[in-house]
Amino acid sequence: MARRRKPAFGAWVYFTLAFLAGAYFTFAAVQGSFGVFRRAEITAESRALERELDKLNVEVARMENLTRRLSDTYLDPDLLDEQARSVLGLLRSDELAIR
Q: For residue 90, what pLDDT is reported?
């Protein structure tokens, strides 16, 4: 009768180390600093920052418009009237001020 021989101890060590290395690299590819989950976090953060940038661009455009309207080359009577009322406390003759 033929005897069955056990695999050598070195083969067990080799396959165990190969399995552990594969498991480590799989974990690193999914959970690591440059893994799939981190990429999803970066993408979400990028979208949030782009939305914030859009809001800031709108605010900058509004401020540029107000600055242009207050410049020497452009006179906006409504804005001038509003500024005179708020800064100087001026009133027209037909208005009443209630404090």
A: 74
Report CA Rg, the chain. Answer: 36
For residue 99, which of 82, 57, 89, 33 has the smallest C-alpha distance?
89
| 30-73 per-position pLDDT tens digit | 888 888 999 999 999 999 999 999 999 999 999 998 888 777 77
d(CA 99, CA 96): 10
Q: Which of 17, 41, 37 is nearest to 29 (CA)?
A: 37
Concatenated DSSP letters for 39-91?
HHHHHHHHHHHHHHHHHHHHHHHHHHHHHHHTSTT---HHHHHHHIIIII---
* Those residues with Cβ within 8 angstroms of residue 36's Cβ, 6 or more apart along the chain or in another chain: 29, 30
Candidates 87, 85, 77; CA nearest to 95 is 85
